[in-house]
Specification:
With 256 residues, the chain is mainly α. It has helices at residues 3-22, 27-36, 41-62, 64-67, 71-94, 97-132, 142-158, 163-174, 179-204, 209-228, 235-254. The two termini are 20 Å apart.
């Protein structure tokens, strides 16, 4: 990897750490860059997952005040995320690499749709709560939230793009809670899913450690940026960048 390629990966890591802390979808920054510097898709995904763990931890620490009072909820949802993330990681290693090459463009496309629709989903949720109030909602989300998080976490363990958007949508819809506290919980669940997937990958998968360490360094810095000043950035501009990067990734994978 040349010095310019290394700088590109590091910069992508900063972007990924920042956007992951704010809403999610950071993989759409790093994954295309790792492909562009020559990593095979599965190796790029594995190295990216490992590298983003420190960024997830950094963002969670930045939101630690919003996690206060959510211990019981975090344990319950965290265990569900752990099982789902482990299943997704095992699935990635069990399926042939050609299956990943075929599936990932579709997964990125779905992720981009979620990123674009996120503001509309948030507005629809706000209108629903204004209309119905909190009557009839369960404070813990019930089986529907656990089931949704299980599948979202399996997706995250397999390929994490827009995993955070899925978490925010599910918890925003089913929990009676402030959005910032939900976002803090989202960051914690991402630590768990990426962490368990990273442990599996370190043990049995091929890792490009140069790429992983560069992403880790960048995402750690980005996690702090996202927690402190990321809320001031224009959501529209961020979504535009994410969509542009994601489209490049889809085109690059289809032309491989």
């Amino acid at each position: 990897m040349s010095i310019w390629e290394a700088l590109a990966v590091f910069a992508a890591g900063i972007g990924a750490g920042t956007i992951n802390t704010i809403v999610g979808s950071g993989t759409l920054f790093t994954f295309p860059v790792l492909l562009a510097v020559g990593l095979p898709p599965v190796t790029a995904n594995v190295s990216n997952t490992i590298g983003l763990v420190t960024g997830n931890i950094s963002g969670t620490l930045g939101y630690r005040r919003e996690l206060r009072g959510q211990r019981a909820r975090a344990v319950r949802l965290g265990l569900t995320a752990l099982v789902g993330g482990l299943a997704g990681a095992v699935l990635l290693l069990a399926l042939p690499s050609k299956a990943f090459d075929a599936i990932v463009p579709a997964l990125i496309g779905i992720a981009l749709v979620l990123v674009v629709l996120q503001p509309r989903l948030a507005k629809a949720l706000a209108r629903r709560r204004e209309r119905n109030g909190t009557e009839g909602e369960r404070s813990d989300g019930g089986p529907a939230l656990l089931t949704g998080l299980l599948f979202a976490s399996a997706y995250g363990g397999y390929f994490g793009a827009a995993q955070g958007v899925l978490y925010l949508s599910l918890m925003g819809l089913l929990l009676r809670e402030d959005l910032q506290r939900i976002n803090a919980l989202k960051n914690l669940l991402a630590v768990i899913v990426n962490g368990v997937a990273a442990l599996v990958f370190v043990c049995v998968a091929h890792v490009d450690w140069t790429a992983a360490l560069l992403v880790a360094a960048g995402s750690t810095l980005g996690g702090q940026i996202g927690a402190k000043v990321g809320r001031r950035l224009s959501p529209t501009a961020l979504r535009g960048v994410i969509v542009a990067v994601g489209v490049v990734a889809i085109v690059q994978m289809l032309l491989r």
